[in-house]
Design goal:
The chain is mainly α. It has four helices and no strands.
Length: about 180
């Protein structure tokens, strides 16, 4: 039986194993079922992550990234070894079933179908839009702070230049009037 936060067994180039791994990683690190957007994103990333793991000699690199290794900001998972702080799961217990390897006798159902209901698509879209809105708000705040800092610096430079111009004018006037 697979333990939480351990990758499922199988060929990480097999689409069925990849889907089971995506589902396992998200239920383990977020205690939620994977949705269509999760599958689309991670399926596209998976070959590059597996190749990168081979390149840098890190076993299960794709799995580690899926459960939050090297994540930052809103991508940091709430549960697992890469949560902040690291933990063993939800304090009140898991709401999602353990995704086990298929040879286990009590293996759960396969991943969600690839054709979600319109209601699920709306939920996924709302979740994505909320996430994007949070990122835009964060970026806007950063830009406003940077813009304010730049404006303040430019104001100080302008004041200094005005002061230097006045000094130069006085020096010029003193030199030619004496």
């Amino acid at each position: 039986m697979r333990a939480r936060f351990q990758p499922p067994r199988g060929d990480q180039t097999d689409p069925a194993v990849i889907d089971r791994t995506i589902r396992a990683g998200l239920t383990d690190s977020t205690d939620r079922e994977a949705v269509l957007g999760d599958y689309v994103y991670w399926r596209a990333e998976w070959p590059n992550l597996v190749a990168r793991g081979v390149e840098i000699h890190v076993d299960h690199y794709a799995w580690l990234r899926l459960i939050g290794w090297q994540a930052g900001g809103t991508d940091i998972p709430p549960y697992g070894p890469y949560a902040v702080p690291p933990n063993g799961g939800p304090p009140g217990g898991w709401t999602t079933p353990l995704v086990d390897d298929p040879e286990a006798p009590d293996a759960p159902a396969p991943p969600l179908p690839l054709t979600p209901s319109p209601a699920q698509l709306l939920v996924d879209l709302q979740t994505s839009l909320t996430h994007l809105a949070e990122q835009v708000a964060s970026l806007d705040a950063s830009l406003r702070t940077a813009g304010h800092t730049a404006t303040t610096a430019l104001d100080r430079i302008e004041q200094r230049l005005t002061h230097l111009e006045q000094q130069l004018a006085r020096m010029w006037r003193d030199r030619w009037t004496t």
